[in-house]
């Protein structure tokens, strides 16, 4: 997976929109607590925000949007909160898939479906199958996902396939990751003011640009997405080189 931007997605010759944006959707619990609501209400509000941001991302010309909804570490949260999040996911798939399909979104999942209710696993697979031919935007939900777990499973699969040490290359590792058929993220946004990667897309984010915002995820709106994209467009991306690049572009 080579880091890349898509000039065709640019609104103008000077503004190259990132081809792949990934978002760490943080702050749902705090959003609810500040309003005197149970934490699960924040997760409900955060889930309802997905369609709004996906729609606007497509309007901006972003071709790939990856949203981190639930990490492998989130299983450590109180049982009631975890069960509530899983119920929200199930309702969201049932409620939102048809609308996203009509809007040309292709749904994907990265992470493991292990541990989820069989009916929920089936609903995820059916949503992916229904939308597989859409190409306006690829919406990937990282659910039960962790970057270290992803790399570990990739190593295990390579060993199981009999890959010899001298055969291991970056390109080969790419093919064993959950994201094998996705481009690397150009821009990673984290909401809520936290400034860390938290085990998200560890391999894929090697040359991604980061944008941190204090806005909590349920309040993160189209104008916040545009602000992050504008910030990205004014960056110089050098990918380890020293030749200055035009904003949002790889160095020559």
Brief characterization of the structure:
This protein is of the alpha/beta class and 252 residues long. 40% of the residues lie in helices and 14% in strands. Strand 3, helix 4 and strand 4 (137-145) form a beta-alpha-beta unit.
Q: How would you characterize the overall build of this protein?
A:
With 252 residues, this protein is α/β, with parallel strands linked by helices. The chain contains 7 helices and 6 strands; from the N terminus they run E-H-H-E-H-E-H-E-H-H-E-E-H. The chain has helices at 28-34, 39-60, 79-102, 118-131, 147-160, 170-176, 222-233; strands at residues 20-24, 64-71, 105-110, 137-145, 187-190, 209-212. A 6-stranded parallel sheet has the order 3-4-2-1-5-6, sandwiched between helices. Helix 4 (118-131) links the parallel strand 3 and strand 4 (137-145). Helix 1 packs across helix 2 (39-60) and helix 2 packs parallel to helix 3 (79-102). The longest helix has 24 residues, at 79-102. It is globular and about 55 Å long. Mean pLDDT is 90; it is low at 4-13.
Percent of residues in helices: 25-40%
Order of helices and strands: EHHEHEHEHHEEH
Low-confidence stretches: 4-13
Number of helices: 7
Structural class: alpha/beta
Euclidean distance between termini CA atoms:
18 Å
According to DSSP, the number of beta strands is 6
Kindly estimate the percentage of residues that lie in beta strands according to DSSP. Answer: 5-15%
Tell me the strand order in the biggest sheet: 3-4-2-1-5-6
Shape: globular
Rounded to an integer, what's the Rg over CA atoms? 18 Å
Major sheet details: 6 strands, parallel
Mean pLDDT: 90
């Amino acid at each position: 997976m080579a880091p890349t931007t898509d000039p065709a997605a640019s609104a103008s010759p000077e503004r190259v929109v990132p081809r792949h944006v990934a978002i760490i959707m943080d702050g749902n619990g705090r959003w609810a607590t500040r309003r005197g609501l149970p934490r699960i209400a924040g997760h409900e509000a955060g889930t309802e925000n997905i369609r709004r941001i996906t729609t606007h991302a497509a309007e901006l010309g972003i071709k790939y949007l990856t949203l981190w909804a639930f990490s492998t570490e989130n299983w450590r949260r109180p049982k009631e909160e975890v069960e509530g999040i899983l119920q929200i996911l199930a309702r969201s798939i049932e409620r939102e898939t048809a609308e996203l399909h009509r809007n040309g979104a292709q749904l994907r999942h990265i992470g493991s479906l292990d541990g989820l209710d069989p009916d929920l696993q089936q609903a995820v697979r059916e949503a992916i199958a229904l939308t597989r031919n859409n190409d306006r935007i690829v919406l990937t939900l990282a659910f039960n996902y962790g970057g270290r777990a992803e790399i570990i499973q990739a190593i295990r699969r390579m060993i199981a396939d009999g890959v010899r040490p001298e055969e291991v290359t970056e390109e080969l590792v790419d093919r064993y990751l959950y994201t094998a058929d996705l481009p690397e993220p150009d821009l990673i946004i984290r909401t809520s003011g936290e400034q860390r990667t938290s085990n998200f897309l560890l391999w894929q984010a090697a040359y991604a640009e980061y944008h941190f915002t204090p806005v909590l995820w349920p309040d993160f709106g189209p104008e916040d997405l545009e602000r992050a994209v504008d910030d990205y467009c004014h960056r110089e991306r050098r990918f380890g080189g020293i030749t200055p690049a035009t904003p949002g572009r790889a160095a020559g």
